[in-house]
Amino acid sequence: MDGVGGYEGWRWIFILEGILTVLVACCAFFTIYDFPETAKFLTESERAWVIHRLRYQGSKESGQMVAESENFKWRYVRDAFTDWQIYLGLWMYWGIVCPLYGTSLFLPSIIRELGYTSSTAQLLTVPIYITAAVLAVAVAWFSDRSGQRSPYIFTCMCAIGIGFVICIAASAHGGVPGVVYAGIFIAVCGIYPAFPGNVTWISNNLAGSYKRSAGMAIHIGVGNLAGAMASNFYRTKDGPKYLLGHALELAFVAVG
What we know:
It contains ten helices and two strands. By secondary structure, the chain is mostly helical. It has a two-stranded antiparallel sheet with strand order 1-2. A hairpin with a 6-residue loop joins β1 (56-58) and β2 (65-67). α4 runs antiparallel to α10 (243-255). The model has no long low-confidence stretch (mean pLDDT 83).
């Protein structure tokens, strides 16, 4: 579409993505219900079951149910700040989000430095993200069906680590851009299924809506500082091998 309407091709990428976002937002306003009480597609029995599940939460293993509080108390926020699960999960979050931001921001540049043209570099990112999206849905489905989070997150983080090990080894050797691409491919396919798994795992382990709201705000808010760190990993002067960037990503994965 380069030249269509007097705009460069890269501008049309943002225009089309923006139009789609606006259309989806408009549709969502009329199709997404705010509360179970107003969801017209639910039967009376389904509505009662959903409301009960929201008000009384627990796990099959513990056999305990926690009633949702009707009134906000600052104690719930304090409980969130003092819950060790959030901070442990935060390290896991950084181990996933640092590679996510690093690859998202610099994947086209990395591929271009491997010898491909700018347009080809953009196209070579498409198979990676399509595969990662399919795997994210598949892993989420199996995780939900089994009622387990940690085995799937651990497996995905191992895939991320393996991918960056391949990138480091191939980049250090030189002359094998296809192997570097394969390493990035594997890493990204581990990143996107692990990310929602980590967020869901923490959410499942914070009982009470107010504590969960505060805990998730801490977890995601502080966790997204990884973007500030990852944006400085892949420096121009380190190209085309980017050994430092790959090594830092691998370090965060290992800690996570």
